[in-house]
Design a protein that fits this description.
alpha/beta
Length: 448
């Protein structure tokens, strides 16, 4: 065999071997984990702060929390999650009724039938010393973190360890003094404790973080330094994330608002963790009824019936972003209007509230408040020749002397080594108008 033939054969053999290796090689897929982060269900909670709830709406609210819980369970089933985390306060009291316990149990059983594990802690409303011992054991798919020390639980998929979950339940309604809720919960401690290597580590706590210093506070920096991929937190009833790009310290909020101050959407987090990629957190609304506070400017209206129509349109605009069909709202009427004196008459505001409620049966106005002002005519005030006329005259003189005001401001800026921005010069007229309106408002309200 000549050298040229031998060389060609060697090159062919090399490429054939390379092709064989490449064809048989598969790039390992990045590990992914998907779970529901839920907290603050508060089964059995009363609905506080509602002054004028009708009979039908009172009954409706009694069903709202169990319905929100059912939606959380259905979200876990629909999204085929690996597991569900419940971060405390499943019950509003440490001694729930049997009906409330049965509702909670039935949801867990549905997850068990689907092969979905549940990892949960207790909170300040349902401490571990209370409710669990009342009616019996939980299904075998549910694991509860201990309260006397941090607990570490292993999640396996198809026999392979995929995640370690670390957390601690509340032992009593008050967190022990001089004990940090996150003490001993780090990635290194969790992996060492279970003697495993896993792609993901998740922390579970019921804490006020740095928002509520009365409920087991902990610094976000401490959680960030713990090396966890995600912190599933409970106690704060509003959804919160430490980062939009890569959320890792999150409150899912409560599943259903319980009082008029708990406005806006409520639900759970669908969390997807992927190795080497930012965390993905998708909010899933679960509330059956939302609370909203709505301001309606009626300054351009001339009849009471127009108020009903304008309010109805404002409610629909607010509801479009609330992610829920049914809504309980507190409405504040604002603006300077010729209807102000009519709204002051006895019974008018209550009749108006009832008319607003009759306009659409999916919305319920609990409280209607009048913060309107009488429509004042500057021309009439000037003719009266009293204090308001004097104030308006002073305001007119100030507007006429605008150039002098600008020169004064320029001088003061120059003395500080600065230049007066032209944007300030352009705002002089608007600021003078606002000052004039403020003085007249104070005068009308008897504060001058």
């Amino acid at each position: 065999m000549c050298l040229m033939t031998l060389g060609c054969w060697a090159k062919w053999a090399f490429y054939a071997r390379l092709i064989h290796v490449l064809v048989g090689y598969t790039v390992p897929m990045a590990e992914t984990l998907k779970f529901i982060h839920s907290a603050d269900l508060h089964l059995g909670a009363p609905f506080r702060g509602l002054r004028k709830v009708s009979g039908p709406w009172a009954e409706r609210l009694m069903r709202a929390i169990p319905e929100a819980y059912e939606r959380m369970i259905q979200a876990a089933l629909d999204n085929r999650v690996d597991f569900v985390i419940i971060a405390g306060d499943s019950f509003d009291l440490s001694n729930p009724t049997y009906r409330e316990y049965l509702c909670f149990l039935q949801g867990l059983e549905r997850l068990r039938e689907a092969g979905i594990p549940v990892y949960m802690i207790t909170g300040n409303h349902d401490p571990l010393s209370g409710w669990r011992s009342v009616y019996g054991n939980l299904p075998d798919n549910v694991q509860v973190f201990p309260a006397d020390a941090p607990g570490f639980l292993l999640y396996e998929r198809d026999g392979e360890p995929k995640a370690v979950l670390a957390g601690r339940s509340w032992p009593h309604r008050s967190w022990p003094e001089n004990v940090s809720v996150a003490e001993g919960i780090t990635r290194d401690v969790a992996l060492t404790s279970l003697r495993v290597r896993v792609p993901f580590c998740i922390g579970v706590l019921h804490t006020g973080l740095d928002i509520d210093p009365a409920r087991a506070p902990v610094s976000p920096k401490q959680l960030e330094a713990a090396g966890m991929d995600y912190w599933a937190l409970g106690h704060i009833h509003t959804p919160r994330q430490n980062s939009r790009r890569n959320p890792s310290i999150c409150f899912s909020g409560c599943l259903q608002g319980r009082a008029t101050k708990e406005t806006g959407p409520h639900g759970v987090n669908l969390v997807t963790l992927t190795e080497g990629e930012p965390n993905k957190v998708t909010f899933i609304p679960t509330a059956s009824v939302v609370y909203e506070k709505v301001k309606v400017d009626i300054s351009g209206l001339s009849t009471v019936s127009q108020i009903v129509q304008e309010t109805r349109q404002a409610l629909f605009r607010v509801n479009a972003t609330s992610q829920c069909d049914e809504m309980i709202e507190r409405i504040v009427l604002t603006g300077a209007t010729s209807l102000h004196h009519i709204l002051q008459q006895p019974g008018v505001m209550e009749d108006l509230r009832l008319a607003i409620n009759d306009a659409y049966n999916k919305f319920f106005c609990d409280v209607l408040e009048d913060r309107t002002k009488p429509l004042m005519s500057k021309k009439s005030l000037r003719k009266e020749g009293l204090l308001p006329a004097t104030l308006l005259q002073v305001a007119d003189e100030a507007k006429d002397a605008k150039d002098g005001d600008i020169e004064y401001l320029q001088q003061r800026f120059f003395e500080k080594g600065l230049y007066l921005p032209r944007a300030c010069e352009r705002k002089i007229d608007r600021l003078q108008d606002e000052a004039e309106a403020l003085v007249l408002d104070l005068l009308e309200g008897g504060k001058l």
